[in-house]
Structure formats: structure tokens, C-alpha cells
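Figure 2 data, in text form.
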Amino acid sequence: MIPLGALPKIDLHLHLDGALRPASVREMALEAGAAWPPGGEERCRVRPDCRSLVDFLATFEFFLPFLSSRQALRRSARELCEDQAADGVIYFEARFAPTLWEQTGLSAEEAVEGALEGLREGTAGTGVHWGLILCGLRNTDPARTMTAVDLARRFRSRGVVGVDIAGDERAPLAPHAPAFREAAKLGIPFTIHAGEAGPAANVREALSLGATRIGHGVHVVEDPEAVAMAKSAGATFEMCLTSNLMTHAVGRIEDHPFPRLLREGHRVTLNTDDPGVQGTTLTQDYELARKVFGLSPADFRETLRHSVDAAWAGEALKRDLRVRIEAAWGGVA
């Protein structure tokens, strides 16, 4: 079989600030005049003793303060394109919460502009295609989620394709509902992190708000009603195998619901989540799926079809992605 790294892939669930090169973080910190601690590059990765999503997210608290400039965001986005192209990814949707950069002195608008500048530079150098998703965070002021929606409206013609909400699922989604109702009114598509560390009820709530995609959704299988609701809505699950193992969303990779949902005809996709923090690539997640679940080339092709269908790209680009995927994967035995 052709090595999976050489085949075209799509990543719909990819956090920009979770995809940084540790060496680049160090360089950007030093350029900004910050003190770089011993073992700093190792601290940009998830700790081996990570036991939960909260532990996982704590990793970001170390390095985000070093990304305090528009130029740092620009560089990070450009390097993301380079890394994705090197892994055979032909289209990805990166996401980040621009209001987080307000604590560094940047406005949320400047953060979006910096990310878009880097992504455009990355495309020029690699040919990889992308879209940018703007996030709110459950555990912050709902006004910040509304800001993400407003920025998505303003930058929609420049590469922003949708909105999301991430963060600790113990924080309620309901206070952020007005932002998603506003997104729906504006015709801005949205995905919601749900059922990752939280229960299946969170998936039902996200679907009730009109989410067409679910970030992770691992625990949906614990509630037949939620499973049926997702199937009826035609929702797409953005699943991230390695991440879910690291955050202990699943105790063992063998227990991951991905293969079951695929067999049952759900729209499921394979994605990385935070490849820089995890020290992984999408190819490695594909290899894991092949090894543990016995996925065939036809199975991978089916998940990629789901990815194209769910992508918030223009129809002309989606047609091109379909052609490239069918041409490459159709001949793989």
C-alpha cells in the first residue's frame, strides 16, 4: 500500500495555537525579549501524566504569552501551512480564539488579520488550501463569543469560514446561545465542541442550537437519543483519535466510537486537534486508525468524502478536492 503520508488528506479540526513548532515558540519568545526557561520546548508538549482535558489545556498557558505579536501569529499560521502540506494535507480549517490575544496587547481584529496574513503566505509557498474558524470559549464572557461572530461576519470575504466554541465543557453553553443564533441569522456556519469531556447531553444541546458539525462528540454513543438526533440532522463529527486518548476522553483507543459511528452511516471525519502540542501528524492518526480499527482505503476515502461535504469551502474548491481525493485514493488497494 502507498504510504499514507503521500496521500491527500483533509483536517477540519485543527487549533492554530495547538499546532505550533516548539522551536519556533522559543525563537519568538527570545525575539520578544522574554525569558525562555530551561526545558521550555518540552513544556510546549502535553505532559506524559496528562489525565484530563483540563490538564491538556493547561499546556497552552505556558506558551501562549510568548505569541504576543501580530508577527508571531503570522509566522505561526505560515508554518502551519508548511507543516500541513508536508503531511499531505490539501485542505484544512484552522481555528483559534482571537479574543485571547487581547491579554497580550493585540486587539481581536489584529489577531485575525495576523493569522490570515500568515495563512495567505503559506498558501503562496505550498499551494495548500485553508479556511479560518473563529472561536469563543465556554469559560469566558459570552460577549467574547459574540465578538467572534462579528469578526467572522467582517472577515468572511477574506478567509474566515465559520465559528466555534471550545474550552472546558463544565462551563455552560447556554449563555453563549445568543451568539450562535446571531451566526445563524447571518448565515455563518458553526461547529461546537461537545461530548469531548462532557456528556452526550452536550451534543444534543449543540445540535439544538443548529450546529452542523460537532467537535469530537466522543460521548454521543452513551445516549441513543443523541445518536439518533445526530443521524437525523446529518451532523458531521470532527473526531481526533490521538487527542481523545491524551485527554482521556476515551480510556483506550480500542474503545473510541469512531469505527462504530462510521459503520452506522454517520458522517465522521479524522482530524488532529492540536498536532504541535501532541507531537503528532494527521498521517499518524490515519496509521492509528488503520492499525487499531483495520480501516481500509475505501473507509478512509469515505471519511474524506465526509470531510469535503462538511468543509466550509467554496463549491469550486470542493469539486477540486473531490477529484484529487478520488484520483489518489481510488487506486489504492
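Caption note: The longest helix spans residues 108-126.
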